[in-house]
Amino acid sequence: MNQNKLFGLMFVLLFLFFQGEVRASEDILHTKHNLAANPDIQATSSGININGEICVFCHTPHGGRTDVAGGGAPLWNRRLSDSTLFTPYDSPNFDKAGLTPGRPKGVSLACLSCHDGTIAFDSLINAPGSGGLFSNNKNLAGAGGSIGLTFNGQAVDSGNKFKSGDRTDSAIGGYVFYNTTNTGGAEPFPNLGTDLTNDHPVGMAIPQTDPQFALILANKNTNSGTDGHLSGTNKVFWLTRDGALQTDPRDRLRAYSSDTTSLDTPYIECASCHNPHEASRLTGQPLPTDPVNATTVNNSRFLRAPNPNQPGADMNDRNASSALCLSCHQK
What we know:
By secondary structure, the chain is an alpha+beta fold. The chain is 17% helix and 6% strand.
């Protein structure tokens, strides 16, 4: 085999290897964030042809918002929630810290632009195709913003937003939404609502004086290059109690520089523990060749990976033995 053919073969093998690695860690097709396949949502084309584009409900290649934590949600294609409407977590033992502690900021607002139940799933800035700019969704915040797509899932109301209701685990694929009046509260798990008092606090700085967080503050890594995003408002801090990090940066627990006036202050946000593209489940990662249907998309919890040295760490069941929690909390 001549040198050119050998080089070509090596290139193909390396490409396939890294493609396999990417698919093993992130596979949006096989997650609930594939809104066309998610049985709770079932986004379909109507009037505006989404043309099978699954990324469009969050991202756009051109003209997206740049004010989401200085790029914490890249190329963001959605109207944002109104941060002043949320009731943040509070308790006697809560060490409030940072700018407006507990009020969603930055990348958490991006997540809540679906999950607070006030913003339509199709509150897009850019619809697929040309001429589909909806400038109000780029310039305004708060309820609504629907551009008129069709959703056939049981979790979507007449305004194309998350319904309130309860859930059952008796349907195929695990947790499927049902709008019932059974006991269990007014909101299903994916619809957090604007009352966040019973949810893990987000938009809060890691307390500097609480000894349980001393180790992760001592080990927070803000280097550029292989171990972190570049400086500025898009800074990311890797979180670990003992310095051990997951090999793949996308799996690492992290904090964000949500306060643009204090860029070295690490904030806990939704994406600190959740990777919206991650498809692991108790039975392991789906294969690229697995079908995309209600069963395969309906059981990912989008968890990042625990500290690899944490007792009980499991890359599939990522909070087994509370390993994910204990990667930050010293209890």
